[in-house]
Write a structure and sequence with these properties.
Layout lengths: L1 H22 L15 H5 L9 H4 L8 H16 L6 H5 L35 E9 L32 E9 L4 E8 L6 H19 L8 E5 L22 H20 L2 E3 L13
Parallel strand pairs: 3-4
Antiparallel strand pairs: 1-2, 1-5, 2-3
Length: 286
């Protein structure tokens, strides 16, 4: 018991000595050491360079280079480039597409004043139909669309060596003779088209319908579609040697003109028809 009391007393004495050391002594005792100016007193001095850098030059608040640079660039862009077009958006638009592209221009006429059906036709049924087929077989050897990659060497490309079966653009025109609505579907033996190809064909078909039949046929009512045959000519440039060599533009013009010609022939050949449809059910197979 005596030993425990002695240990407790020594612990209390040590705590008191530590408290006096931390407080700098008694209340009436003055510190004789050098006086360290408070940070606020230093800020009020005549030389701002001696101010506490941690207070005046806080990089996270006043002089963060990232924040200042971002703000300056953003403000400058808003001031000088306001209304500018994003270059990424421009690159998505084909170079030859636009209001000045002659291939997609249409005659400036009063379309709404024109008839929508050939005026030399007399129909006695509610519906009329016309069909046409135009040959679009390439006239010279051409890269075929698929089954191989040339690796930049034209000798490795898969080219046509003749014609096994002729290729066609086949059109079907359907018309409602009461309200004058007309639509044309054209199927082509081809791997496919670019959207711009469709734009050109639709502009051409509207122009030719006006010039040759004197009617208003909205080009978008001609719907071209491809069979996606990989034994047909390459109409995209994906199966050629690449590296600056694109698709065969001479053949592109031939197939575009063939689609348009088939559509015009189908509309000019509209005649009375009776539409018949049927419906049945097929049992599911296990």
């Amino acid at each position: 018991m005596g030993e425990d009391m002695r240990t407790t007393a020594l612990g209390i004495a040590a705590a008191c000595v530590l408290a006096l050391a931390c407080s700098g002594g008694s209340g009436d005792q003055k510190d004789s050491g050098p006086i360290v100016p408070d940070a606020i007193e230093a800020d009020l001095g005549t030389d701002p360079g001696e101010a506490d850098p941690g207070v005046v030059e806080d990089p996270g608040v006043a002089e963060d280079p990232g924040v200042v640079a971002d703000t300056a660039v953003e403000d400058e862009g808003q001031a000088s480039d306001e209304g500018a077009v994003d270059p990424g958006t421009v690159e998505d638009v084909p170079a030859d597409e636009g209001p000045t592209d002659v291939l997609t221009q249409r005659p400036d006429v009063d379309w709404e004043s024109l008839p929508t059906l050939p005026v030399d036709k007399t129909f006695t049924t509610r519906y009329a139909a016309g069909v046409a087929r135009v040959d679009v077989t390439p006239l010279t050897p051409i890269n075929l669309s698929g089954y191989g990659f040339c690796m930049g060497d034209q000798k490795l490309c898969r080219q046509s060596a003749g014609v096994h079966d002729p290729m066609h653009a086949t059109a079907v025109a359907l018309a409602d003779t009461q309200n004058g609505e007309v639509v044309v579907f054209v199927g082509v033996d081809s791997v496919g088209f670019f959207p711009y190809d469709a734009d050109v064909m639709q502009a051409k078909v509207q122009t030719r319908m006006y010039q040759e039949l004197g009617i208003y046929f909205q080009g978008e009512r001609m719907i071209p579609s491809a069979s996606h045959s990989h034994s047909s000519p390459d109409t995209t440039g994906l199966w050629g040697p690449l590296f600056g060599v694109t698709r065969d533009e001479a053949y592109i013009h031939l197939i575009r003109d063939g689609v348009v010609e088939a559509a015009v022939q189908a509309v000019s050949g509209l005649q009375d028809v009776s539409l018949v449809w049927a419906q049945t059910e097929m049992a599911n197979r296990d």
